[in-house]
UniProtKB/TrEMBL annotation:
SMART domains: HTH_LUXR (SM00421). Signal peptide: none annotated. One of its GO terms (cellular component) is cytoplasm. Pfam families: AAA_16, GerE. The keyword ATP-binding applies. It comes from Actinokineospora alba. The keyword Disulfide bond does not apply. This is Regulatory protein, luxR family. GO terms for molecular function: adenylate cyclase activity; ATP binding; DNA binding. The lineage of its organism: Bacteria, Bacillati, Actinomycetota, Actinomycetes, Pseudonocardiales. GO terms for biological process: regulation of DNA-templated transcription. Gene3D superfamilies: P-loop containing nucleotide triphosphate hydrolases (3.40.50.300), Winged helix-like DNA-binding domain superfamily/Winged helix DNA-binding domain (1.10.10.10). Keywords: ATP-binding, Nucleotide-binding.
Length: 941
């Protein structure tokens, strides 16, 4: 039974991340340890652990009495114990007749229990009275059935209560288990612990540490079923369960990492921090305030400069703040508050005039250093109300961020300034213009774009400044967001307002010249390129020249101009200037992107590697995301596919709101799901790729091809034809047939399926004309497939077989492994129709092996079924035992399982039942002594 219950009105999460500690406590109580001590800092979850302990079924046999020590200024003798006994009337009434006479000594403390307690004569002296009370409480506890005394927040206990705990340690008759919870930074319990140890009593001492990242992840999963931002939540909370819970509660029903920035300091967290400050003393509080104002980990000298404490006083105060765990040492000689919310709570508790004075001290301190951090200096100028100097520092900090290759940091500084209501009107123009320039190198979020749209729409700006901001906004809409039509409209509007800004005009025209984005014909793109060349003629701006060169080569590569390679060979070595390195890196990246679409996979890898040497995630996150997408498409063609889906998923997650940068990854995921028997998922994913980049012509065309192929395989020919025709309409609109390499064979097959052979023949002729004279080996191989399909339809199976075989060789030379396997499969089917079973079995067997090596389950299963039709006498062998070694079948299944295939996919690939595969996987894991499928990869040859 339980004498008193904790307040259950507040909804709580479970004991996430504390299962080991809870089991330790339950075991200690079950084994009748005399003392169980739980120590930990404020907010670490001691009381929560206590509540879970008392809920455990193993505690039900105990009579639980709880005492809660309170942080009151004036304590009363035995205050918590008196409240505990006053709440245990029912338990005391049950044992009243058996209470020893000494228990009457409690009557003066508990008048409401006077009728239940024996008569007792007043003691002769205060010391005797005190001893009698100790004996009386012990006697009451001994009268109860398996008593369990719980003392929470022992650091606030009065001395008499502590004496009681000591008395229970030395009393030979005491059978009470005492659970105490306290903050080790606010109380010294060494003498208490020694009293128990000295009597030889069994005791358990447990120190609660903050949650680890996995512990926070467990908490998130229990609250919301996901743990996507556990690491960020851990960073902001230092793993303290109180802070974790309050943050998650503030996030509501749809928590995301981005929403954490919108949350202030939760009330319970603020109250807990302020309460701890009140116990620190003036000097230690001054140290914490100095660190909060400084805004980053501070040295002792920094803290002394802001707090105004003397060396001796500052050292003692710093030690006190560390002992109280308000501060922690982040690196040798640097100190910070426990977590960001604690820093905000301490900062907000400082009176305004005092804060301003401390910011001025911080400015003086930073200005005296050799290289003051401009962003931090800007922060202090702002909060010291030195607004002109603040603006100067903001612009200088943004330039410093750009020069050091971290444009995202500069963008954050500028955006914060633009959002500040105190930004002087005279400075808004300069800050907005700088932000529009910096976002070209970083990744512009929707919020950034909305800010600049407001600027060009609502702010009274000089004509040329407004036009340049509009130009940069248009470039981002085209290149990063995928709003091609809107972006091109902004660029064209900006061009009319920039008659004398030649290099800025040239940059906009060069963007309009890129064939890959937008729906105007290639001829229009080429006219824009000529105008850009003219606008840039005679300029000495090296960055503008590099940018124009990048777009010039990109245009030629995107239309598969054979002469582009000669221009590429003249590219310079890596320059020193960061801006020129970015432009050269962009050139190589654009080359790689176009080379993959055209089928030059070897050069594509070379240019990706060259780009990686010139740009990185910090200096050009936008370019790095594009490089990652291009590499995914390259690996989908050339292999290997191991981990490819995971890489694509990571890119989709990394780009977040900027879905345009996820289009390549979504396209690859759509292909993989098609090839692995997940056609419904594939249809949705390919549609997502189109929606992510609706103005990116090759992606949209290729997505139409993928959807048409899926619907055709399902027999949904009407839908397949609609997809194929939509893709062909785009290709004709652009007049760039090299992007039809995936679509043309699918469209030809669909037309033939629907009885439209003349249209299929006309498509082949149009495709041939479109790629004639173009350096596009992928399209050239696709043209052979289209011709073979038409020959097969006419009944020319031998001719078709030869064309398919030639296409397979061309695909293999690229190498495009899946396309080569498909052409080989079609060659085998034509051989069977031509009456050449040996060639049919040869080609189908080769295609099945190639598909299986790629883990293309749908394709491999189709070949296996065809082989059963055309080679019914396939030999079989008797089985033999392999002991603890893997059989050939088990080795094959282990390889597929390690690659991430499900049991169902493996079953379809190998034409087995799912139950058979499950048995094989269980045997494999037993033989290799592993507990998870992810562990198989490292154990296989």
């Amino acid at each position: 039974m339980t004498a008193a219950r904790l307040d259950q009105t507040r909804p709580e999460a479970s004991i996430s991340g504390r299962t080991v500690e809870l089991a330790t406590l339950v075991g200690a109580v079950a084994e009748r340890h005399r003392l169980v001590v739980v120590e930990g800092e404020a907010g670490v979850g001691k009381t929560r652990l206590l509540r879970e302990l008392l809920r455990d079924p193993a505690i039900a046999a105990h009579t639980v009495l709880e005492a809660h020590c309170l942080p009151v200024r004036t304590t009363h003798p035995y205050g918590a114990i008196v409240e505990m006994l006053a709440g245990a009337v029912d338990e005391l009434r049950a044992v009243g007749p058996t209470l020893a006479p000494i228990t009457g000594a409690l009557a003066p403390l508990l008048p409401e229990l006077r009728g239940l307690l024996p008569e007792h004569q007043a003691p002769l002296s205060p010391s005797v009275a005190r001893h009698q009370v100790l004996r009386a409480v012990a006697a009451v506890l001994e009268a109860l059935d398996r008593p369990l005394l719980v003392l929470d927040n022992l650091q606030w206990a009065d001395e008499e209560t502590l004496d009681l705990v000591r008395f229970l340690a030395v009393s030979p008759r005491s059978a009470v288990t005492v659970v105490t919870l306290y903050r080790g930074d606010e109380i010294n319990t060494n003498d208490l612990l020694e009293a128990y140890r000295g009597r030889g009593h069994a005791m358990t001492q447990l120190e609660l540490a903050p949650l680890t990242v996995p512990g926070v992840a467990e908490f998130l999963r229990e609250y919301h079923g996901c743990a996507d931002f556990a690491a960020e939540l851990h960073r902001r909370s230092a793993g303290l369960p109180l802070v974790v819970e309050e943050l998650v509660r503030e996030l509501g029903d749809h928590p995301t990492s981005a929403r954490l920035d919108e949350i202030g300091v939760p009330a319970r967290v603020r109250d807990a921090v302020v309460e701890r400050l009140t116990h620190l003393g003036r000097s230690a509080t001054a140290v914490c305030r100095a660190v909060a104002v400084f805004g980053q980990p501070a040295t002792e000298a920094d803290i002394a400069a802001l707090s105004g404490l003397s060396d001796r006083g500052m050292t003692a105060a710093l030690e006190g703040a560390l002992r109280a765990r308000m501060l922690h040492e982040t690196a040798r000689g640097h100190y910070d508050l426990r977590h960001p919310l604690a820093a905000r709570a301490v900062y907000e508790a400082i009176p305004g005039p005092r804060r301003r004075e401390m910011h001025l001290r911080a400015i003086k301190r930073l200005s005296g250093s050799a290289r003051p951090g401009l962003a931090l200096l800007a922060h202090h100028y702002r909060h010291a109300d030195e607004l002109d100097r603040w603006v100067e520092c903001v612009l200088a900090a943004a330039q410093e961020a750009a020069d050091t290759g971290v444009p995202a940091a500069g963008m954050r500084i500028l955006e914060n300034a633009l959002d500040d209501a105190e930004l002087p009107v005279s400075a808004k123009e300069a800050v907005a213009l700088r932000l529009s320039r910096e976002m070209l190198q970083g990744i512009a979020t929707p919020a950034t774009i909305d800010r600049l749209r407001t600027v060009v729409r609502d702010w009274p700006l000089p004509r040329d400044v407004g036009a340049e901001i509009r130009m940069n906004l248009g470039l981002v809409l085209v290149n990063q967001v995928g709003q091609v039509v809107a972006g091109q409209r902004e660029i064209e509007r900006a061009l009319t307002d920039l008659p004398r800004r030649r290099t800025v005009r040239a940059r906009g025209m060069a963007t309009l010249a890129l064939p890959q984005v937008g729906f105007v014909p290639v001829a229009t793109n080429l006219r824009w390129l000529a105008q850009a060349e003219q606008a840039c003629a005679g300029t000495t701006d090296s960055e503008a020249i590099a940018a124009l060169r990048a777009n010039r080569i990109t245009v030629r590569m995107q239309i598969a101009d054979p002469g582009a390679w000669q221009v590429i060979d003249t590219l310079p070595a890596a320059p020193v200037a960061p801006s020129l390195r970015r432009q050269l890196g962009r050139t190589h990246l654009n080359m790689a992107d176009a080379a993959v679409w055209n089928g030059h996979f070897g050069p594509a890898r070379h240019h990706l590697d060259a780009a990686a040497e010139l740009v990185d995630d910090r200096s050009a996150p936008y370019l790095s995301s594009l490089a990652a997408g291009t590499e995914l498409r390259l690996l989908a063609a050339t292999g290997p596919w191991d981990g490819l889906a995971e890489k694509a998923d990571r890119l989709v997650a990394a780009v977040g709101q900027m879905g345009y940068l996820a289009a390549d990854a979504l396209l690859v995921l759509g292909w993989l799901r098609t090839w692995r028997s997940r056609s419904s998922d594939a249809l949705r994913t390919l549609q997502s790729a189109t929606e992510a980049a609706p103005g990116h012509v090759p992606i949209v065309v290729t997505a139409h091809a993928g959807r048409a192929a899926i619907l055709s395989a399902r027999g949904q020919v009407t839908g397949a034809r609609a997809e194929a025709e939509a893709g062909l309409e785009l290709v004709r609109q652009k007049d760039n047939w090299v992007w039809a390499a995936e679509l043309a064979p699918v469209a030809t097959e669909v037309f033939l399926q629907t009885g439209r052979a003349p249209e299929a023949a006309a498509l082949l002729a149009e495709f041939r004309r479109g790629i004639q004279g173009r350096d596009a080996p992928l399209a050239a191989a696709a043209e052979l497939v289209c011709a073979a399909l038409l020959a097969q339809h006419r009944g020319g199976h031998t001719e078709a077989m030869a064309l398919f075989a030639e296409a397979a060789e061309r695909y293999r030379a690229l190498p495009h492994r899946r396309a080569a396997a498909r052409a080989t499969e079609l060659s085998g089917l034509c051989a069977a129709e031509a009456g050449d079973p040996a060639a049919a079995v040869r080609d189908l067997t080769a295609a099945e092996a190639d598909y299986a090596a790629l883990t293309a389950t749908t394709d491999a299963l189709r070949c296996r079924k065809a082989l059963r039709r055309h080679d019914p006498r396939r030999p079989t062998r008797g089985r033999r035992g392999y002991g603890n070694a893997l059989s050939p079948r088990e080795k094959a299944i282990a390889k597929f399982a390690a690659s991430g295939l499900t049991n169902r996919e493996i079953a379809e690939l190998l034409t087995l039942s799912r139950r058979t595969v499950e048995c094989h996987v269980a045997n494999i894991m037993r033989k290799l002594d592993v507990s998870s499928r992810t562990s198989l990869g490292g154990l296989l040859d």
